[in-house]
Amino acid sequence: MTHPTIELACKLIEEKSVTPEDALCQPMMIERLEAIGFKVERLRFGDVDNFWAVRGDSGPLFAFAGHTDVVPSGKEAEWQHPPFKATIEGDLLYGRGAADMKGSLAAMVTACEEFVSQHPDHQGRIAFLITSDEEGIAINGTVKVVEWLEARNEKITWCLVGEPSSTNTVGDVVKNGRRGSLGCELRVIGKQGHVAYPHLASNPVHLAAPALAELAQEVWDEGNAFFPATSFQISNIQAGTGATNVIPGDLKVVFNFRFSTELSAEELQKRCENILRKHGLNFECKWHLSGQPFLTAKGELVAAAQKAIRDHCALETELSTAGGTSDGRFIAPTGAQVLELGPVNATIHQVNEHTSCEELIRLHNIYTSVLHNLLVAK
Ligand SMILES: [Zn+2]
């Protein structure tokens, strides 16, 4: 199948940009964008390549946001096709990043090419905020570019993130927000001793168990119209010396909250520590807030995307806040309307990651229409 979107997606997949490497993905995108009148600023923070590109001088700012880095391939031998060689079989395009998110990046670039050729004097401004540090620790990527934009007092009005939001077919789901993520490393302190002499020791496993049970059963909130109820999950528990006759001196527990906009991270921390205290535990908590929840309930961006999806897919898209965190968490706090709209996410981060060529072309059409719906006078 030859379509500029598929051709560009293939070229991007063949760059081995395992996070935080960009390889030559960004130069390839920059060359195409400069050719249609974008002004590009390359922003290297630490060892991470990012760029910001803008077309137009004034007015509301529409930005495509995304990442060129991909997760490692895993065992290459388990792939039907080499992960860093784009292979098309029937309608399916195979390769690491096909769905997350080099296909989207290609569709963004070709959508702009088509849109600009039709509307060279469009209203407002079109921008790209591209990083190669989304799949990794994400400290020198979007968060730094957003700080740089804020320092210049540059505000994004509408931001479309190309993360693979769809479930069964392209456009069936868009993400208009994400839950917050709050993690904790808890250490419960006891006193080590011989299991035969428990009166001389203090077993942190026994002390912590009822408190952990209460945390697991606690109703943190009921969620709201856009968010499911806040959830608490323990991801690791560890104690013991390895010997069967030793009461451990301490217990380490790792847990995570995915939380709605009904609660703040501070409230969650307080309620959680109150429960631990109520059980009389001697403990330490190391909290890590990896993302605040955000929500773009309605407005021009949601309407523009809904209309584009209706026109190209003949379906009413579902607004969802499910799934993991994304770089939208860094952009939304600036006041931008943020929406994630991309391919089907069924194979992302897996062996044999792939996407439908036909749906990628449809994504190009959707992106082109979103530009049209926002930046052309009715
Ligand atoms: Zn992604």
Structure notes:
It is built from nine helices and 19 strands. Helices cover 31% and strands 26% of the residues. The strands form six sheets. A six-stranded mixed beta sheet has the order 1-2-6-3-7-18, sandwiched between helices. Helix 3 (98-118) packs across helix 9. It is elongated. The mean pLDDT is 96. It has helices at 4-13, 25-35, 98-118, 142-151, 204-217, 265-278, 300-313, 328-331, 357-375; strands spanning 39-45, 48-55, 61-67, 87-89, 92-94, 125-131, 158-161, 173-175, 177-178, 180-189, 193-194, 231-239, 246-247, 250-259, 283-291, 294-295, 318-320, 337-340, 354-356. With 378 residues, it is an alpha+beta fold. Bound molecules: zinc ion. Zinc ion binds at residues 67, 100-101, 134, 163.
What's the arrangement of secondary structure elements?
Layout: H1 4-13, H2 25-35, E1 39-45, E2 48-55, E3 61-67, E4 87-89, E5 92-94, H3 98-118, E6 125-131, H4 142-151, E7 158-161, E8 173-175, E9 177-178, E10 180-189, E11 193-194, H5 204-217, E12 231-239, E13 246-247, E14 250-259, H6 265-278, E15 283-291, E16 294-295, H7 300-313, E17 318-320, H8 328-331, E18 337-340, E19 354-356, H9 357-375
Parallel strand pairs: 3-6, 3-7, 7-18, 8-17
Antiparallel strand pairs: 1-2, 2-6, 4-5, 5-19, 9-16, 10-14, 10-15, 11-13, 12-14
Helix pairs in contact: 1-3, 3-9, 5-6, 7-9
Bound molecules: zinc ion (ZN).
Zinc ion is lined by residues 67, 100-101, 134, 163.
